[in-house]
Design goal:
209 residues, mainly alpha, 9 helices, 0% strand
Length: 209
């Protein structure tokens, strides 16, 4: 994608900046998926994006900062997949579990698997978990609060439980990402996830029967 201003300068500065950032994100995202973070040089990203090296450092501090932006964007896309999966369910417990399943399904996408789940933690370290927590923990808490309000889960503090569930989902995702057969690993780990999280729901519903 070449972002030279072929329209004779009719675009606003904000539009040109947005176009350049989009070109850099798209180029970086494709190259990180193809070659991995460590094997991708900043010069290659600039060349594929069709911008100058100065443009890269105008919008991002360095390659790692650009990678961080790619990861954050991917997290937002995973959020959208989770929300779509939840909306497709008619019952609250089913919607919550469908959201958890959608997170694990995201690992099956080769681009997500390589960049988000494998390179993300190694490149960004604890910051990667902070990015994930910023998106995930609050949403898990909301789901738990709704389950408690509807009587599906015993009343309790949702903060610690949400972080435990999020940690479990992350470890499950890492298990899938590191597997030579991601689909089989997803199915295997999902069975364990259903038994683990489903136990919270089953215990409460059984008490009501």
């Amino acid at each position: 994608m070449n972002v030279s201003d072929e329209d004779g300068g009719r675009r606003t500065q904000a539009e040109r900046r947005a176009t350049t950032r989009r070109a850099l994100l798209d180029a970086a995202r494709s190259m990180f998926a193809e070659k991995g973070y460590h094997e991708t040089a900043a010069e290659e990203i600039v060349r594929r994006a069709g911008v100058t090296r100065g443009a890269l450092y105008h919008h991002y501090e360095d390659k790692k900062d650009l990678f961080r932006a790619v990861v954050d964007e991917m997290e937002g896309e995973i959020d959208e997949e989770i929300e779509a999966a939840e909306r497709a369910q008619s019952g609250l417990p089913e919607a919550v579990m469908a959201g958890y399943r959608a997170f694990l399904d995201a690992v099956l996408d080769p681009e997500m698997r390589c960049t988000f789940f494998l390179d993300g933690p190694s490149v960004l370290g604890w910051e990667w978990r902070e990015i994930d927590a910023r998106h995930a923990v609050g949403k898990i808490e909301e789901g738990l609060e709704a389950l408690i309000a509807e009587g599906f889960v015993e009343p309790q503090s949702v903060g610690p439980l949400a972080r435990l569930i999020n940690g479990t989902l992350l470890e499950a995702a890492f298990f899938v990402a590191a597997s030579e057969d991601p689909e089989a690993a997803r199915d295997e780990v999902w069975g364990a996830m259903e038994r683990l999280v489903g136990g919270l729901l089953k215990g409460r519903s059984t008490a009501q029967n």
